[in-house]
From TrEMBL:
Pfam families: MFS_1 (PF07690). Residues 18-393 form the Major facilitator superfamily (MFS) profile domain. This is MFS transporter. The chain crosses the membrane at residues 18-36, 56-77, 84-101, 113-135, 142-166, 172-190, 211-234, 246-269, 281-299, 305-324, 345-365, 371-388. It is a multi-pass membrane protein. Its main location: membrane. It comes from the Bacteria.
């Protein structure tokens, strides 16, 4: 066989209203990832915080998101997807509002952790909901989900920059307002499940990681996400010495990053996976991302060079996000909520490591060191995919018979 195939639908835009309601809320939820990017220097300056303390706004958010992800499938299969989504959105509204009212960086770090809990409940359940309700097959649903992700990540820095130019509190209040709108949209448009889902065991996501294919993809995503969040969270501090520290300037730079991510996730990723297996796409694009991060390290004293690396990085990240998510949804016969929870939990924990580690490396070594380390981490992700490619046949759209699977497992164990 040649490449993986993508199910053809009349149009990805022809979706039930409930899918659009969840997708809209996804856009707002993913805004929260890049929202604080343009205001990091302002928060550090106004609240007398160090870069490492400020980067903890990412870490507290991502650590709690990652840990909570392991338990979202257990909760959603007991109370239903709609209630889980609404609880997640409500938590984001409350904690975003509290973050905007905070008087010190420690409080914001704590409230971002609560925000991360709401984010975990929402994101993991939203992916499974869109895949289950969207027309056009799994691949079309994932492209729609990744488009929402890319759009949210693109708009987040822009909103953060525009509102942050008035006050660093503005983006938090803006997110709380938009999430309240998303809450209302899901209440009105998303119907309660007609059939109650089968409850999953609390240990199901942890057991799922023992599945060879899912374990390989989760491990690769952990190292890949380190590169992702070094580029997103550390670059604003790398741009400060070059005179690019205003919220509005950083907002536009990372708007370009997020927009390029959205474009490639929707249009370029499907184009590539129609022409080659998904694992080959990953094994090709991950080293390109590593090279981009090394280029950022070499261009550490050039504002044009760093901005170009940020935009190119966004293009590569868009492809990788979509293809990795497709692989996770197709690589096993596990329930999608379980696979999504397990994979996302590991992935976000990888992202949590990166921001404070990057600033500590910059202080201990050189400002370029975090980019070199991120490039090395992404290469590890590529190596994991290459070594484990035989276990990922199903992710490529290829079905292996029991004998071939047994041989692959035996080879891996020997």
């Amino acid at each position: 066989m040649s490449a993986s195939t993508v199910a053809k639908a009349p149009s990805i835009l022809h979706q039930p209203r409930a899918v659009w309601a969840v997708a809209f809320a996804c856009v707002i939820a993913f805004m929260g990832i890049g929202l604080v990017d343009p205001i990091l220097p302002a928060i550090a300056n106004d609240l007398q915080a160090t870069p490492t303390e400020t980067e903890m706004l990412f870490t507290s958010y991502l650590v709690i998101t990652g840990i909570a992800m392991f338990f979202t499938s257990w909760l959603s299969t007991r109370i239903g997807a709609k209630r889980t989504l609404l609880i997640g959105l409500a938590l984001i509204v409350v904690f975003a509002l509290l973050a905007g009212l905070s008087q010190d960086v420690e409080s914001i770090i704590g409230f971002r952790a609560g925000w991360g809990l709401g984010n975990a409940l929402f994101i993991s359940t939203a992916l499974a909901t869109i895949v289950g309700a969207a027309s056009g097959g799994t691949s079309s649903a994932i492209i729609l989900y990744e488009a929402a992700l890319g759009l949210g990540i693109a708009i987040g820095p822009l909103v953060g920059g525009v509102l942050g130019s008035i006050s660093w509190r503005g983006p938090f209040f803006g997110t709380a307002t938009l999430m309240a709108v998303g809450f209302i949209a899901i209440v009105v448009l998303l119907k309660k499940e007609a059939v109650k889902p089968t409850p999953t065991r609390l240990s199901a996501p942890f057991r799922a990681l023992a599945n060879p294919a899912l374990g390989i993809l989760a491990a690769a995503a952990l190292f890949y996400n380190i590169g992702f969040f070094v580029l997103l969270a550390y670059t604003p501090f790398a741009l400060i010495p070059l005179g690019l520290s205003s919220a509005i300037t950083l907002g536009f730079i990372f708007f370009g990053w997020g927009l390029s991510l959205a474009v490639t996730s929707v249009w370029v990723a499907p184009l590539l996976t129609r022409r080659m297996p998904r694992t080959r796409v990953l094994a090709t694009v991950l080293p390109l991302l590593a090279l981009d991060l090394v280029a950022a390290a070499l261009a550490i004293d050039s504002e044009v060079g760093l901005i170009v690396c940020v935009i190119v990085g966004g293009m590569l990240l868009g492809i990788l996000n979509t293809v990795l998510t497709e692989c996770v949804m197709e690589a096993t016969d596990l329930p999608r909520t379980v696979a999504s929870s397990a994979y996302s939990g590991v992935r976000f924990l990888g992202g949590a490591i990166a921001p404070p580690a990057a600033t500590l490396l910059a202080v201990a070594l050189t400002p370029a060191a975090p980019f070199y380390a991120a490039g090395a981490s992404v290469l590890v992700a590529a190596l994991i995919i290459v070594i484990g490619r035989k276990r990922l046949s199903r992710a490529n759209g290829f079905e292996v018979d029991e004998l071939e699977e047994a041989e692959a497992i035996s080879a891996g164990d020997s």
